[in-house]
């Protein structure tokens, strides 16, 4: 019997759970073990809850900013556990984006009632003070499935949206289901990486087969986006709220957003908006398959110099001269790890150190096992490439095509408000479109797809 066929012992399961708990990885992968909180239990936080639960109506009626102006600065020391910290982060980041983008113009100053608690909660969770993928997706859902099967899209519900539309909820929930489906491969791929040391080909091949099947299921869930989210609703009503403050000068934020902490204190920040590029699951797939990405995803190189406050910008300035080497700017995939919860980020760093299935699969083949490994590995890479092709198709349908319909007039009026989607995207072609994460959208996604496909190629007898 091969090692991968031996049932795990109770001690082994317990040890693995303790190991994954350290990185906040659960039976649901990067999702919580249980559905997130619907309310903060302490009535002290009722002012936050009252606004966020009526967010679409307040934005639609134009009374949201008035309500925020009346908010007190609440302390965060009454938050009792991780679930409550996450809940507070979801509330405050939704209020942040609603405040910045929920009017007839972008607002560049965030009031202390939001800034002060958000900065503290974000620091506690090791996240930037902006609506990340974690806020919009990982911690913003509930499920009516009695078995807590979060892959069941029909039983999922978004806790909060900006627009109140089913389209926006569906957009978030598709990602939740994808994350839940991907949870099935975390343990098996960790076993595969461990099996590299002993050259246990049976275990590695079996794990890669599970991975390939899971990627295909994730892709099938992604294609369900078309069922419940209309491209025009997404582009014109939903997408503007997801934008960050990085590369957003054209939409009215040349310096980003000022986080006002009162008494003359505060700071300007240029941060990426939420995007699926911040999914730890997607980066986990790349890491275990040895897929490397080189793109910086820059939508506007000139703006990068002003991005000193952005997470991930850790380069130290070095004056050019003899013996001095210019520091390498982190790639986009490295930068966005700073937009993941701290434990998840450390998990990816740990997995990166475990070894490379790609290197083993690319060794000169002398046995049938090695041939089977390469074939199985290439099948997994093909599945991940196809997944990224599906993503490109969705981006084309939901962003590129609607942007081409936008009048080239710097932003038209929609229902009495400036159409921010049109303002930031009009007069651009598909090569210039900017993603909510601040990337040069189509070139970045195509390069990412191509780099995935190239991982299975052989170059002059060595892995490339």
TrEMBL record:
<keyword id="KW-0223">Dioxygenase</keyword>
<dbReference type="GO" id="GO:0019441">
    <property type="term" value="P:L-tryptophan catabolic process to kynurenine"/>
</dbReference>
<dbReference type="GO" id="GO:0020037">
    <property type="term" value="F:heme binding"/>
</dbReference>
<dbReference type="GO" id="GO:0005737">
    <property type="term" value="C:cytoplasm"/>
</dbReference>
<feature type="compositionally biased region" description="Low complexity">
    <location>
        <begin position="298"/>
        <end position="315"/>
    </location>
</feature>
<keyword id="KW-0349">Heme</keyword>
<keyword id="KW-0479">Metal-binding</keyword>
<dbReference type="InterPro" id="IPR037217">
    <property type="entry name" value="Trp/Indoleamine_2_3_dOase-like"/>
</dbReference>
<dbReference type="InterPro" id="IPR000898">
    <property type="entry name" value="Indolamine_dOase"/>
</dbReference>
<protein>
    <submittedName>
        <fullName>Indoleamine 2,3-dioxygenase</fullName>
    </submittedName>
</protein>
<feature type="binding site" description="proximal binding residue">
    <location>
        <position position="391"/>
    </location>
    <ligand>
        <name>heme b</name>
    </ligand>
</feature>
<dbReference type="GO" id="GO:0046872">
    <property type="term" value="F:metal ion binding"/>
</dbReference>
<feature type="region of interest" description="Disordered">
    <location>
        <begin position="298"/>
        <end position="328"/>
    </location>
</feature>
<dbReference type="Pfam" id="PF01231">
    <property type="entry name" value="IDO"/>
</dbReference>
<keyword id="KW-0408">Iron</keyword>
<keyword id="KW-0560">Oxidoreductase</keyword>
<dbReference type="GO" id="GO:0033754">
    <property type="term" value="F:indoleamine 2,3-dioxygenase activity"/>
</dbReference>
<comment type="similarity">
    <text>Belongs to the indoleamine 2,3-dioxygenase family.</text>
</comment>
<dbReference type="GO" id="GO:0034354">
    <property type="term" value="P:'de novo' NAD+ biosynthetic process from L-tryptophan"/>
</dbReference>
């Amino acid at each position: 019997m091969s090692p991968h066929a031996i049932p795990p012992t109770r001690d082994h399961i317990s040890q693995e759970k303790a190991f994954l708990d350290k990185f906040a990885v659960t039976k649901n992968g990067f999702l919580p073990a249980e559905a997130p909180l619907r309310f903060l239990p302490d009535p002290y936080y009722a002012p936050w809850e009252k606004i966020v639960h009526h967010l679409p109506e307040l934005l639609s009626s134009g009374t949201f900013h008035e309500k925020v102006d009346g908010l007190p600065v609440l302390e965060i020391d009454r938050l009792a556990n991780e679930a409550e910290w996450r809940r507070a982060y979801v509330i405050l980041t939704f209020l942040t984006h609603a405040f910045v983008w929920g009017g007839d113009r972008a607002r560049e100053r965030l009031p202390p009632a939001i800034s002060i608690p958000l900065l503290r909660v974000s620091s506690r969770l090791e996240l930037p003070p902006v609506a990340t993928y974690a806020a919009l997706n990982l911690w913003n859902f509930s499920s009516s499935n009695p078995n807590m099967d979060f892959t069941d899209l029909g039983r999922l519900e978004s806790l909060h949206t900006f627009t109140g539309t089913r389209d926006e909820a569906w957009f978030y929930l598709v990602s939740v289901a994808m994350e839940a489906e991907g949870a099935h491969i975390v343990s098996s791929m960790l076993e595969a990486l461990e099996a590299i040391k002993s050259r246990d080909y049976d275990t590695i091949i079996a794990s890669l087969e599970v991975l390939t099947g899971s990627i295909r299921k994730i892709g099938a869930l992604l294609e369900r986006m078309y069922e419940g989210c209309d491209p025009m609703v997404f582009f014109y009503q939903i997408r503007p709220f997801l934008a960050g403050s990085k590369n957003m000068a054209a939409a009215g934020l040349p310096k980003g957003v000022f986080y006002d902490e009162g008494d003359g204190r505060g700071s300007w920040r240029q941060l990426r908006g939420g995007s699926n590029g911040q999914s730890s699951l997607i980066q986990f797939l790349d890491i275990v398959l040895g897929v490397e990405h080189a793109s910086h995803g820059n939508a506007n190189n000139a703006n990068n110099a002003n991005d000193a406050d952005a997470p991930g910008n850790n380069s130290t300035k070095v004056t050019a001269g003899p013996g001095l080497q210019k520091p390498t700017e982190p790639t986009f995939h490295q930068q966005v790890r700073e937009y993941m919860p701290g434990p998840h980020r450390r998990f990816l760093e740990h997995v990166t150190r475990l070894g490379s299935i790609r290197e083993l699969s690319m060794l000169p083949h002398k046995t049938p096992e090695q041939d089977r490994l390469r074939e199985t590995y290439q099948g997994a890479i093909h599945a991940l490439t196809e997944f990224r092709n599906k993503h490109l198709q969705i981006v084309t349908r939901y962003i590129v095509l609607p942007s081409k319909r936008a009048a080239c007039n710097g932003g038209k009026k929609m229902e009495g408000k400036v159409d921010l989607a049109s303002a930031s995207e009009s007069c651009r072609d598909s090569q210039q479109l900017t993603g909510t994460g601040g990337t040069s959208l189509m070139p970045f996604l195509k390069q990412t797809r191509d780099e995935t496909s190239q991982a299975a190629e052989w170059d002059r007898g060595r892995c490339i």
